[in-house]
Amino acid sequence: MIDNGLMMQYFEWYLKNDCELWKKIAEDAPRLAKSGVTSLWLPPAYKGANGIDDVGYGVYDLYDLGEFNQKGSVRTKYGTRKEYLDAIEALHKNHINVYADIVLNHKMGADEVEEVSAQEFNAQNRYQMVGDGKTIGAWTKFTFPGRKGKYSDFTWNWTHFDGIDWDQNRLQQAIYKFAGKEWNLGVDTLENGNYDYLMGADIDFNNQEVFEELVKWAVWYVKETNIDGFRLDAVKHIPSSFYRDFLYRVREITDKELFTVGEYWQHDVGQLAQYLEAIKSEASLFDVPLHYNFYDCSKAHGSYDLRRILDGTLVKENPVKAVTFVDNHDTQPGQSLESYVEPWFKPMAYAMILLRNEGYPCVFYGDYKGIPHDKIKSNKQLLDKLMKLRKTKAYGVQHDYIDDPNVIGWTREGDAEHKDSGLAVVLSDGTGGTKRMYIGRQYAGAHFSDVLGNAKYNIKIDNEGCGNFYVNRDAVSVWVRKEPSNKARK
Predict the structure, then answer these.
(1) Helices (H), 230-320
(2) Residues in contact with 1: Cβ distance below 8 Å, sequence separation at least 6, in sequence order
(3) pLDDT in tens, 96-118
(4) Catalytic: which of 12, 120, 263, 287?
(5) What is the reported pLDDT for 131?
(6) What residues form DSSP beta bridges with 412?
(7) Residue 220: CB partners within 8 Å, gap ≥ 6?
């Protein structure tokens, strides 16, 4: 019997740099499995330029998983290499897959400066040169002296990059493209003309040495850690042809399926569809348009038309490839893509990703555990209920009633493989109300109750297999079969 898959992103931006996360994950593994989690997306595990203060996206050394004295510490922000491997083993013992956060777009914290001929470019138009060419001091020499060639003797120099945003000679910040280089194609072109360059020393994916080294590293990483898949960071800044070939090679060499989900941060679902076609590889994408629909609805406070909540989303256009989410570490308060869904709408948004048939949902640590940095409280109690409902009830044929501006719903008929499965969901961003929905003639005469407690009475399914399911104002109700004992039946 296969239960519904459920991913959890097990970190947020402002976790304490106490080097304890890997140990906490090992301890939490049994509880996570019991709650219905089937996979965990872990933060970047390798040494960042800011040592224990680095969340992991300022990549310095991909081979240092908390093993070498580099950037002021042996540990990463999350712990040591051994603790990381122990956490993965604990998750596997509890039948939870592990997805590693792979950050290949750039490197930071170089060991030496190189003199490089370069041209400055307009930050808003990466094809527009500013002024004349010059020789800059570029932090592009990565020798990893603390590792001393263990695992790989490859060192990086300016030829492995195509640009940088700092001139050490003049102490000047700007976007510089190295002479003889071109911005990579196959990247997002809706922003800045060409959005190859994002930050740091920008890796040149047209360089064959780079490709071979990154494949070699990925194979080493998979074998060393026994991870089950990848979360790919910032894919819209990386040529689609690179991941097309990279994923094929790594899967071929490791002989592993390696589930992969990419972060292509774009509102336009058409761009997501084009990317999936371009990489020609087995991969999914986070449903960024759906996140923004949730965000817009939460900010509208009742004036959003719920009939449009799935419009323009990947889960509607290509549900098999959609990883759905409400928020993540980039959208939380204070971050570059801040668009945090307001608390009042979080229950409705999570019901939509957890209790529907389409998409592969991802729960955010910051919603589950809270974000103390911003005094955001935990939603663990609610999410545990919804996650359990996904694990035990959200099966079978789905009937949609997304037909009203303020009250929408759907039902799941249940299936034979999951005893007592089946449910009805109604949510409202307005005054609430009752929605008549079909849940199946097999339930005729059965009683249902709202397990979230927003409706205090039971309802009875009629002979046609329909029920009048109620929801309160600005709330979500989830109705499951529950025969009352001494309560009045409606």
Answers:
(1) 240-254, 269-279, 288-300, 314-317
(2) 417, 418
(3) 999 999 999 999 999 999 999 99
(4) 263
(5) 83
(6) 398, 423
(7) 63, 151, 152
Q: Is 405 exposed, middle or buried (0-12, 13-18, 19+ CB in 10 A)?
A: middle
Section 407-426 average pLDDT: 96
Of the candidates 276, 298, 301, the one whose C-alpha atom is nearest the C-alpha of residue 286 is 276
Q: What is d(CA 81, CA 240) in angstroms, rounded to the nearest whole number?
A: 31
Whole-angstrom Cα distance, residue 70 to residue 379?
37
Sequence-ordered strand ranges (E) for 221-366: 229-232, 259-262, 284-286, 322-325, 360-364
Phi, psi values for residue 428, rounded to 5°: -145, 140
Question: Are the CB atoms for 316 and 370 separated by under 8 Å?
Answer: no
Residue 487 clears pLDDT 50, i.e. is over it: no
Side chain identity at residue 382, one-letter code: L
Asked whether the beta carbons of 312 and 335 are under 8 A apart, the reply is: no
Computed from CA positions of residues 424, 430, 434, 436, in that sequence, does the dihedral angle turn out positive or negative? negative
Q: How far apart are CA 241 and CA 281, in angstroms?
A: 10
**pLDDT tens digits, residue range 18-35?**
999 999 999 999 999 999
For 337-357, what is the mean pLDDT?
A: 98
Average pLDDT, the chain: 96
Q: What is the mean pLDDT of residues 184-211?
A: 96
Distance of CA 195 to CAs 4, 192, 211, Å?
36, 6, 20
Phi, psi of 46 (to 5 degrees): -100, 165
Query: What count of Cα atoms within 13 Å lies in the side-chain half-sphere of residue 201?
Result: 26
Q: Are 70 and 64 in contact (CB under 8 A)?
A: yes
- The pLDDT of residue 1 is 64
User: What pLDDT does residue 261 have?
Assistant: 98
pTM of the model: 0.96
Q: Which residue type, as a one-letter code, is found at position 468?
A: N
Average pLDDT estimate for 227-248: 97
The residue behind tokens 């510490």 is 73
Q: Could you give the CA distance from residue 39 to residue 24 in angstroms, rounded to a whole number?
A: 16
112: annotated active-site residue: no
Average pLDDT on 219-247 reads 97
Is position 233 annotated as part of the catalytic site?
Answer: yes
Euclidean distance between CA atoms 446 and 303, whole angstroms: 36
> What kind and span of H or E run contains 201?
strand 201-203
Give 275's strand partners: none
Tell me which of 61, 233, 327, 429 is the catalytic residue: 233
Dihedral sign from CA coordinates of 268, 273, 278, 282: positive
39, containing H or E segment: strand 39-42
Report the percentage of the chain scoring pLDDT > 90.
95
Q: How far lies 386's CA from each of 75, 286, 392, in Å?
A: 36, 20, 10
**Integer CA distances (angstroms), 393 to 175, 361, 422, in order:** 52, 16, 5
Cβ atoms of 339 and 288 within 8 Å: the answer is no
